[in-house]
Structure formats: structure tokens, C-alpha cells
């Protein structure tokens, strides 16, 4: 068993104009997890984000949605991790992933940031790439047959046929988070990846 997750970070951009965009898939999942853990997000300006606090098996679990915009996400994650003494291995980041199709999800620890500015900033703030990432597939404009530039694509809402796949990943992710909060990543990975469409 690994160290259980103590800090769950959903990535996205703040503000109503971004709420429904693909880049906010991490926020969507974080909102559902807060509901599952019966926790409420409150704005904590000192941590540059909305923070929700829950108790799971007698342990404190924090949820965070940074309000710094995606490329400065590390500012909020670093501040919260330092204050609550959370190690990088105890951090789970939920984020959209261009390299996975809608309906696919991937859980992994460490590795590069593949040009994802939110991940890049978090890695710099934590001084380590060893945090966990739950990658929510949103597809890539080329694989989906769209002519949009990537920057434009991530800042638009998913099309109806993509939304179903993303909603499915969010449901499956909600089901495996309890295992991660126990530190059972083998079970969480098996369960999550087992649901990926081929």
C-alpha cells in the first residue's frame, strides 16, 4: 500500500465563462467528489483557491480548486501542501487530457507534464513530479476530426457526443477515489482502467 491521498486538486479556470469548457473537467470531478465526501468548497484567498475539508476514516482530506487560472495552479497547490504538510505522493491532481479520448481515463504517479501548463506549474511548486494524476480524456481536435487549434478546443464545451464519455469517466473516477484515500492504488487503477473503451 502507498501513502493515502490527503489532497485532491481539480484543475480548471475560474469564472462562469469557463465553467462548461473541456479544460475544466478537473473542476467538474472535484465538485462531485466534494458532494460524495459531504464537503463544501469555500473561498480561501490565502490559498488562492476554493478549499473543501472532509474526514475519511478519521483522517483529514482536503479538496482544492485553484482560482489562479490553469498555468498558475502550483501557487495554490504549493501553499496548501506546505501549510498542511502534505507530501507530493499524497496529492492527487484531476485534469483534462488531450491524448485520451472522451470515455477514457488514466491514473498514474509521476512522469512528465506533456505540455499541460497546470501540471508543469504544480510540479515546480511541489519540487517533485511524484504526485498522482487522474487524467480525464477530452480527446484532441485532430483525433476528433476538428480543425480547431488546441488552445481554442480546450476552452470550448464538449460536443454532446463527447460529453457522455466524459460524464462516464467522472462516474468511474468517483467510484475509485475511496480506494485512493486508503492508499490502494492497485485496486483503483485496475477498476478505472478496466472501464476504458478499447
From TrEMBL:
<comment type="subunit">
    <text>Monomer.</text>
</comment>
<dbReference type="GO" id="GO:0072344">
    <property type="term" value="P:rescue of stalled ribosome"/>
</dbReference>
<keyword id="KW-0820">tRNA-binding</keyword>
<comment type="function">
    <text>Hydrolyzes ribosome-free peptidyl-tRNAs (with 1 or more amino acids incorporated), which drop off the ribosome during protein synthesis, or as a result of ribosome stalling.</text>
</comment>
<comment type="function">
    <text>Catalyzes the release of premature peptidyl moieties from peptidyl-tRNA molecules trapped in stalled 50S ribosomal subunits, and thus maintains levels of free tRNAs and 50S ribosomes.</text>
</comment>
<feature type="binding site">
    <location>
        <position position="71"/>
    </location>
    <ligand>
        <name>tRNA</name>
    </ligand>
</feature>
<dbReference type="GO" id="GO:0000049">
    <property type="term" value="F:tRNA binding"/>
</dbReference>
<dbReference type="GO" id="GO:0005737">
    <property type="term" value="C:cytoplasm"/>
</dbReference>
<feature type="binding site">
    <location>
        <position position="18"/>
    </location>
    <ligand>
        <name>tRNA</name>
    </ligand>
</feature>
<dbReference type="GO" id="GO:0006515">
    <property type="term" value="P:protein quality control for misfolded or incompletely synthesized proteins"/>
</dbReference>
<dbReference type="Pfam" id="PF01195">
    <property type="entry name" value="Pept_tRNA_hydro"/>
</dbReference>
<comment type="similarity">
    <text>Belongs to the PTH family.</text>
</comment>
<feature type="active site" description="Proton acceptor">
    <location>
        <position position="23"/>
    </location>
</feature>
<feature type="binding site">
    <location>
        <position position="69"/>
    </location>
    <ligand>
        <name>tRNA</name>
    </ligand>
</feature>
<keyword id="KW-0694">RNA-binding</keyword>
<dbReference type="InterPro" id="IPR018171">
    <property type="entry name" value="Pept_tRNA_hydro_CS"/>
</dbReference>
<feature type="site" description="Stabilizes the basic form of H active site to accept a proton">
    <location>
        <position position="96"/>
    </location>
</feature>
<keyword id="KW-0963">Cytoplasm</keyword>
<feature type="site" description="Discriminates between blocked and unblocked aminoacyl-tRNA">
    <location>
        <position position="13"/>
    </location>
</feature>
<protein>
    <recommendedName>
        <fullName>Peptidyl-tRNA hydrolase</fullName>
        <ecNumber>3.1.1.29</ecNumber>
    </recommendedName>
</protein>
<dbReference type="GO" id="GO:0004045">
    <property type="term" value="F:peptidyl-tRNA hydrolase activity"/>
</dbReference>
<feature type="binding site">
    <location>
        <position position="117"/>
    </location>
    <ligand>
        <name>tRNA</name>
    </ligand>
</feature>
<keyword id="KW-0378">Hydrolase</keyword>
<dbReference type="InterPro" id="IPR036416">
    <property type="entry name" value="Pept_tRNA_hydro_sf"/>
</dbReference>
<dbReference type="InterPro" id="IPR001328">
    <property type="entry name" value="Pept_tRNA_hydro"/>
</dbReference>
